[in-house]
Design a protein that fits this description.
Chain lengths: ~110, ~475
């Protein structure tokens, strides 16, 4: 024990630095998926919730159960909705101007 | 119990002293791999092409971390775990698979609330379970975790309520509000200090928890709807910090790393959003945007001026004579769900050979990237979406600009009027284009009460009414008029 927190502080500072560097490269285009993606990743508190829900202590189990539920919502929901969004971001071919008559309604939509 | 008991009196966790068992080594390795996968997942988001592949890596990382934790020796009972996992997955799928993209800010605020609640409850559970065996450091970390968790929880609920319209979107302010909030914050810090001094004081611990709950409500109340992008980013950051504190309390590096990634992402986004509004953090948090201007004044200012109210046909005639068109979407597009109509109008213009682009302001909408997601949903190719810096020089060469429910981001006052509350905010040079078509519900300046000079310019046509209906009529007018 004792110096664990110094080690953890190192981990924290380095991870923040890596996070800042990686995330500053995300284009504004993808800021919403970034937010829901990090939301899913922060569902890692599920790990701590599992420890609480899986312990001997009854109050801890009940609080842990609620926490596991909330964290799972974020993990499952977060990854699902991020994927749903990312599937929509595509580069589409231009509508060929010459081929289509001006009056006709779009075929691509 | 003696509060001054030296740390050594506490029974150290077995992992810390004993050599690690083979299982423990495997578990640690699993966590390291998970952390690397999370970082790769975020790196994938640097381009739309690799993003989905990156996301799969993140999912694998999460699965690995969860399975590793289930094998942890402290996990002895599985019935509550199983129930939580099943229930959470069900709700998670339900609120993600069918929710419309226009509701994304609400959805994100909602999940921040869950994240905050989960960490806060873990903090409470941990404190109650181990109260007598806690080290000074762990008590402090648990105090922070619980405080930040509950703060994120109620703050996100408030943000959700404001976005949903359950709570008024206008800033709610009163005298001495900032002093009260700052007082609550420092009160919580002092209480955490007190708890470290005497960890057995349960009422102090629950005092910290209640302060977190109260501060979440109080801190979001004075923030107006237009500032929601900053608030949501900030809550994202708090949720991450709460997860970090959990990591410190449980000596779990995977929690610290993931929390730090989440926290730095939220922080970076809030900084970007504040910068896009040319306001400092402190100003967003304590400024209560919109209270600066006297509500009676803008109306009086506008009364003397006249604007060109145009019909759909007039607007269509302008578009038919244009070679280049830029769309500027705003929150109004999300409200009237007009993204598909925008895309259809753009498509019919493109078939006439018109060059169509979309200009996306960083704070357009209610969360970072809100407009991009809506247009992507409507099948707009992302290479037609442009940032402020990449498009602002194009307006002078553009025939027509169509403003769909955007307001502040096209207000020239931000550039010239030093008395305007939005002065200094980077805005689009819309007024430089040949003609501007503004789709707006009414001439009401909205709750921010900021007058927009653009609407009174001679080359601006105001087409009032629901944006979606207007766009659809414009499409048929284009069809008839060829």
């Amino acid at each position: 024990m004792g110096n664990e927190w110094v080690f953890n502080l190192y981990v924290f500072v380095l991870a923040t630095f890596v996070g800042y560097q990686v995330i500053s490269r995300v284009p504004p285009l993808l800021h919403t998926p970034l937010m829901s993606g990090t939301n899913a990743i922060s569902g890692i508190s599920l790990v701590a919730s599992l420890l609480a829900a899986g312990s001997h202590h009854l109050i801890s189990q009940i609080l842990g159960f609620v926490a596991v539920t909330c964290a799972t919502i974020n993990v499952v929901g977060g990854f699902l909705i991020t994927d749903r969004m990312l599937r929509m971001f595509r580069r589409k071919p231009d509508v060929p101007a010459a081929k289509l008559e001006p009056g006709k309604r779009g075929t691509a939509s | 119990m003696n509060p001054h008991a030296p740390i050594q009196a506490v029974v150290p966790s077995p992992e810390a002293v004993a050599t690690m068992s083979p299982t423990a080594i495997v578990l640690s390795l699993a966590y390291i791999v998970a952390a690397v996968l999370f970082i790769l997942c975020l790196r994938g988001l640097s381009s739309p092409d690799g993003a989905r592949r990156g996301l799969v890596l993140g999912e694998i990382g999460m699965l690995l971390a969860v399975v590793a934790t289930l094998l942890h020796k402290d996990v002895v009972r599985y019935e509550w775990i199983l129930a939580g996992l099943v229930l959470g997955s069900g709700i998670g799928v339900a609120i993600s698979a069918w929710i419309p993209m226009t509701k994304m800010p609400e959805r994100i605020a909602f999940s921040h609330a869950f994240g905050g609640l989960a960490t806060a409850l873990v903090g409470v559970a941990e404190y109650l379970r181990e109260v007598d065996g806690l080290t000074y450091f762990k008590v402090g970390a648990l105090g922070f975790e619980t405080f930040l968790g509950f703060l994120t929880f109620t703050g996100s609920i408030m943000a959700y309520g404001k976005l949903q319209g359950v709570i008024t979107g206008a800033p709610v302010t009163w005298k001495g509000q900032n002093f009260l909030n700052i007082g609550l914050f420092f009160g919580a810090l002092m209480a955490i200090g007190l708890l470290v001094y005497d960890r057995s004081q349960q009422q102090v611990f629950f005092g910290i928890a209640s302060t977190g709950l109260a501060l979440g409500v109080m801190a979001v109340l004075p923030i107006g709807g237009a500032d929601m992008p900053v608030v949501i980013s900030l809550l994202n950051s708090y949720a991450g910090l709460a997860a970090c504190a959990t990591g410190f309390a449980l000596n779990s590096q995977i929690l610290i790393i993931s929390g730090a990634l989440d926290g730095s992402s939220g922080l970076l986004l809030s900084l970007l959003m504040s910068k896009a509004m040319n306001r400092s953090f402190a100003n967003v948090l304590f400024g209560a945007f919109g209270t600066v201007s006297d509500p009676g004044q803008p109306a009086a200012g506008q009364a003397g001026k006249s604007y060109n109210e145009a019909t759909v046909e007039d607007a269509a005639a302008v578009l038919m004579a244009s070679q280049s068109v830029i769309f500027i979407p705003g929150y109004g597009m999300a409200v009237s769900q007009a993204q598909h109509a925008v895309r259809d109008l753009a498509a019919s213009l493109e078939r006439r050979g018109v060059d169509v682009k979309y200009a996306i302001h960083p704070v357009a909408g209610r969360m970072p990237g809100h407009m991009n997601v809506l247009l992507a949903e409507a099948n707009v190719s992302y290479d037609k979406l442009f940032d402020l810096d990449n498009i602002n020089d194009d307006f002078a060469r553009t025939d027509a600009v169509i403003v769909v429910g955007a307001n502040d981001v096209v207000n020239p006052a931000a550039k010239k009027d030093t008395s305007s509350p939005i002065y200094g905010m980077p805005v689009f040079n819309v007024e430089q284009s040949r003609s501007v078509i503004v789709l707006k519900r009414s001439m009401n300046p909205g709750f921010s009460g900021v007058e927009n000079e653009l609407f009174f310019q001679p080359n601006t046509m105001m087409v009032l009414g629901d944006a979606k209906k207007t766009l659809l009529s414009m499409i048929s007018a284009l069809k008839d008029g060829h």
